[in-house]
Each structure stands twice: as structure tokens, then as C-alpha cells.
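FAQ: What does the model actually see?

It sees only this:
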Amino acid sequence: MRNPQRKEETRRRMLEAAGRNFRSHGYAGIGVDGIAKAAGATSGAFYAHFGSKDGAFSAALDVGLDEVIEAIPKFQQEFEAEWVQAFVDYYLGKEHRKDLAGGCAMTTLSPEIARAETGVRAAYEVKMSKIFKLIADGLAGGTAEEREARAWAFISTLIGGLTLSRAVRSAELVEGIACGVGEAAVKIAGRGRGSG
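And it is asked to produce this:
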């Protein structure tokens, strides 16, 4: 495959397939052959691009966390002082709850990190620190240290709430979790910067 554009397109498809499958099935739930097949590529092409399943997981994790890093400022710019509520509504909303494959990598991939190698954990920590800084910088009131503590509590509450809401079967219970956790997350965070 000498065409650079074709090579890049194959990599993009495999990276997207890896991300969707790792989010849906977990690291152990999908193999190299399954990811390659989902991307319409060969296992040989997979190894040529990523070297290993770990390499694909690391790349998919980077892309997934970068999505969050890009999304938070967009919520802050679009909704200004109301961005916290808007983000909670999206994060715990029905559409996001049901979209395991395309949903937030923080929720789906964080449990995998505890079993990952040191390099992957270090890269995860760097990205998560960026996410929490973006959240903290977008909160109103208190010292920088207090806003950072609220940011950690805020996103941890949302990740836990989304995980629980996806784990139960009763529609009534799902809505109860989403509602209760959403209210708690907003109280923890307070209003976004720009509020009076």
C-alpha cells in the first residue's frame, strides 16, 4: 500500500473501529482480528499501523480523551454560565447513555486503565489532568484549589452515574439515577464562570 492517503484512511478506519470496540466490549472483549474486520482491513495492516493490540488501545484512548478535551471548551463557549447544566444534561442524557460505542471514553475506558501498563496509565493521567483543568477553569467561585477539587468531584460523579445508569435494566431506575446524579453533579460544580 504505497498511496499515503489510502494508508492514512486505513489507519483512521482501524482507529475508529478500535475505539468503538474497546468502548463497547472492553479491552479483553475484542481481538485484533475483530478490530481489523470491523475496519474492513487485514490483521497484517493492523499490526503495520499499531504494532500490537496495546498500541491500538493507547491510540484509541488518546483519541477518546481528546474528544472530551475539545468538547468542554465548546460547551463553555456555547452555554457560558449555564455550561455545567448543559454538560450534565448531555452526559447523562438518554442518547449518550445508549451510545456505548460512541460515548465518552472517560466512562468506558477508565476501568481498563487500572490494568494497563505504566506508560498507558501515565498518558491517561496527563489527558485527565487537562480535562479537570478545563473544567476547573470554567467554574465560578472559590479559590483555584477549591475549583479543582470541585472539578474532580463533578466529573467523577458523572462517570459513576453514567456507569450505573448503563448497568441497570429498569427504565425507571435508569431515569432515577440520571436525575439524582445530575442534580448532585450540578450542586458540586456550582455555576459556570461568567455567572453573577
